[in-house]
Amino acid sequence: MTTPIVIHNESGYIRAGLSSGDTPSVILKTDSVTGKSPIEKNVVTDWEGMVKVWERVFDELDANPTEHPILMSQPPLNPKLNREKTIQVLFETFGVPGCYLSIDGVLALYSFGGTTGCAVNIDQDVINVVPIYQGYALHHAMLSTGLDRCDTLDSLFGVTIKDNIRDMIYTGIIKCDVELRYDLFKNIVVAGHGSKFPGLRERLTQEVTDVAPATATVKVEQSDQPENSVWNGGDQFAPNLDQYGMWISRAEYDKDGPRVVNRKCF
C-alpha cells in the first residue's frame, strides 16, 4: 500500500497528515465546515457533517483517499455501531484501500515508546482514562467523563467529587489485576488539547502519589505538544500495520462487511 494517512478525531479539532511526518500537516477545527462540530465527547454524533469534515481534510492534504490506507483514532468506549459506521464510510464513501481504528489512548502511549501504561486524554469536552497492557486497552478499566468547561487547572481536579482526574486514574488502575498496577502507576501519560496547563504534570504526579499504594512509584509524562501526542503515536504505529498484516483490506470488508472492525481492531 502507499503511504498511510493518520487522522486523529476529537471534539474540537481534527489532526491529519501523511505518515512519517514530524507533526500533523492539517489541523482543522471541527466546527469550521458546517458551523457545528459533528463530534461530541470525541464520539461522532452527526455522520453527514463528519463526512464533510473528512472531505475537507483530504482536500487540505491534497490526497486522494482511494490511494491511501487510513489509520484513524477512535475514543475508548466508542459504541459498536459507530465503529462499524466509521469503516463503512471510509470504504463506501471514500473508497479507501484499507483502514484501521486504534483507541486514542493506545496511540498516545505509543508516542512515548510504551505499550503498557495508563493514558489520560484531556480534550475539549471529555476526559478519558485508558489502562493499557502490551498494546491492548483494558476495556473493563476504561473511564470517561464529560467536561462542561476546562479553562483552569483546578477544573480538571474538581469536575465532580466522583469524577476528578486524580480519582479517575486511581480507579482505572485499581480495576486492573494486582500484578499490573505498579507498571501502570509508573507509566502514566497525559495527552490532548485540554492538557496544556503549566504545572499539570507536576500536580498530577503529586495527587496520584497521595492516593496510590505507598509502595508504588508514580511517574507522569507529557510532551511539549500534548495535543499532537495521539497523532504522533499513530505516525509511529502505522508501519506496524504493514509489518503484521493488521490493515482491514477492501477484500475483507467486502467479505464480512462493517462487522470486520470488531474482529480486527481492539
UniProtKB/TrEMBL annotation:
<dbReference type="InterPro" id="IPR004000">
    <property type="entry name" value="Actin"/>
</dbReference>
<protein>
    <submittedName>
        <fullName>Actin family protein</fullName>
    </submittedName>
</protein>
<dbReference type="InterPro" id="IPR043129">
    <property type="entry name" value="ATPase_NBD"/>
</dbReference>
<dbReference type="Pfam" id="PF00022">
    <property type="entry name" value="Actin"/>
</dbReference>
